Amino acid sequence: MAEETTPESLFAQYGLQRIWPIHEWSPTREMDIDLSIDRSGKWFYKGSEITRERMLRFFASLLSLGDDGYFLITPHVKYRVSVEECPLLAVDMEVQGQDEQLQICLRTNMDDIVRVDRDHPLRFEHDVATGHIVPTVQVRGKLKAKLTRSVYYQLVDLAVETPRGYPDNESDFHVWSNGERFQMA
Fold it and tell me: pLDDT (tens digit, 9 = 90+) per residue, 37-76?
């Protein structure tokens, strides 16, 4: 009888390395191990919260979003992960420069460092279910991190208003980072 795959067994097998070449792996098998991430960024296995920080960072390093959903990618198997909203949270922000020379770096709850730029854009998407705007940043691949409330408010403090007439005669608020303009409203 095959041994059940659990978060602990995955961690024991692969947990020593930090950066994984998951984009190079093409696992042919797919499994569901009842792993989920709620909208507050907490990870659960069979309904019980996973609290070991090292294990959480390990899982986040294997996480990928494809056309068919979220998965932990290993060389031979991809494990389905249920995600309520965004799998990562942007929890801290550092800023250098000002105006159009502004550079924004965000840190996620899994210690990813993301420099907001063309490859890592800020987005402000409307959540139909809640009616709220969900501010996110692209982290790696298709994975996004939702900005925490405190990071979002820091970002709002940096926003500038575009005067009416540029480019479509409507004013909006935006923020600059690494020469890119990100419209907020």
Answer: 998 999 999 999 999 998 899 899 999 999 899 999 988 8
Q: Which helix (H) or strand (E) holds 33?
A: strand 29-37
Separation CA 37–CA 43 (nearest Å): 4
CATH number at residue 178: 2.30.270.10
pTM to 2 decimal places: 0.82
| Residue 170 belongs to a domain | yes
Q: Which two tokens stand for residue 27?
A: 């696992």
HSE on the CB side for 46, CA within 13 Å? 6
Which phi and psi (to 5°) does residue 53 adopt? -55, -45
Tokens 């907001």 belong to which residue?
A: 116
Boundary-marking domain end, from 68, 83, 98:
83
